[in-house]
Amino acid sequence: MSVRRTPSGRWQVRVKDGRRDVASKTFDTKRSAQAWEAEQKAKLSGGAWVDPKAGRTPVREVIDEYLATRPGIVSSKTLLTEHLLLGKVTPALGRLPVSAVTREDVQTDLGVQALGLATSSVKRYRGILSALFTYSVARRLRETNPVSGTKLPSGAEGHERTEMAPYTLEELREVAAACMEQSPDGDITLFLGLTGLRWGEMAALRVKDVLEVPRRAIRVSRSAPTGHAIRETTKGGRDRFVPLVEDVWQIVARRMVGRAPDDLLFVNPSGRIWGGWNWKCGVSWAQHARGRRVHDLRHTAATLWLSSGVPPKTVQAWLGHSTATMTLDLYAHYLPASEADAGLRLMNERLAGGARGDRPAEQLTRRDAI
């Protein structure tokens, strides 16, 4: 029998899952023992049963167990992000038994995170925390996910747009030179800053993607985001061609020597596809980048093109944007200054005329001549 009377006169119940004892508890009355047994069996059959002993495991230990299952399931970049963000779980939450965590506990923790993290990072943190507790439910450490129903702290609900910080041409050359002092592959800085390719698009380039006729250019048709397999498409979903200036051609030509058409154009020292994290470490990016992201090299190319007079429609094509409107929304401030300067000059003339009766300059000239 699963319910038995102990020598002390109390009633002990053991719950089995198949032949395995999964829980036991002692009660003062047989009726209480039987009721608890029925409740546990119903949860077992419904998939909602929680192991009482395992549920007492602190959240911090469950985090360690969860992260140990992630290699091979997620990319190396995602795994690093999960380690970094779950490492920020507050001590108060980390000490709680995983089965005892409430929605209010999670909401308090999110409020603390919002004090030190950007909005996008708080959103990512909540998503990772939710995945952790989904894992806990699957492991029968608790019945429900306490992250469900929580809200981002006030001010964190809106969309946060990362501010771009393109280099000037002089800054780009200086940063590239500093990176090249750390590694010959530091010239990738200049390549990205003058072609506008995304990191994954650069990493997936093959020798045969380099064209010399009718002009030197590269065909961008694939992408290999860090930690992911090569995708036979780009983020924009279509191929594009980007011309190569002489500085970039020299970078490309050196890498084509002795390689077959299907070989990757840019490879790490081991001859494998480049990962963004490894490259940044190799060139000491954090030390030399002047606070910029690698993606700001793409913005650099776009702003250099526009400020040099390349038509927005052409820049759109080179960047792979879906519309020229998108390109202008991002980079209108970097259009050639001639039109803006002309407009400013006309306004100054009009305002100067306002001091003499708020009339256009040509009207003042005619009347004053009478």
Automatic annotation (TrEMBL):
<dbReference type="Pfam" id="PF00589">
    <property type="entry name" value="Phage_integrase"/>
</dbReference>
<keyword id="KW-0238">DNA-binding</keyword>
<comment type="similarity">
    <text>Belongs to the 'phage' integrase family.</text>
</comment>
<dbReference type="Pfam" id="PF22022">
    <property type="entry name" value="Phage_int_M"/>
</dbReference>
<protein>
    <submittedName>
        <fullName>Site-specific recombinase XerD</fullName>
    </submittedName>
</protein>
<dbReference type="InterPro" id="IPR050090">
    <property type="entry name" value="Tyrosine_recombinase_XerCD"/>
</dbReference>
<dbReference type="InterPro" id="IPR002104">
    <property type="entry name" value="Integrase_catalytic"/>
</dbReference>
<dbReference type="Pfam" id="PF26003">
    <property type="entry name" value="Integrase_N_phage"/>
</dbReference>
<dbReference type="InterPro" id="IPR058717">
    <property type="entry name" value="Phage_L5_Integrase_N"/>
</dbReference>
<dbReference type="GO" id="GO:0003677">
    <property type="term" value="F:DNA binding"/>
</dbReference>
<dbReference type="GO" id="GO:0006310">
    <property type="term" value="P:DNA recombination"/>
</dbReference>
<dbReference type="InterPro" id="IPR013762">
    <property type="entry name" value="Integrase-like_cat_sf"/>
</dbReference>
<keyword id="KW-0233">DNA recombination</keyword>
<dbReference type="InterPro" id="IPR011010">
    <property type="entry name" value="DNA_brk_join_enz"/>
</dbReference>
<dbReference type="GO" id="GO:0015074">
    <property type="term" value="P:DNA integration"/>
</dbReference>
<feature type="domain" description="Tyr recombinase">
    <location>
        <begin position="162"/>
        <end position="344"/>
    </location>
</feature>
<dbReference type="InterPro" id="IPR053876">
    <property type="entry name" value="Phage_int_M"/>
</dbReference>
<dbReference type="InterPro" id="IPR010998">
    <property type="entry name" value="Integrase_recombinase_N"/>
</dbReference>
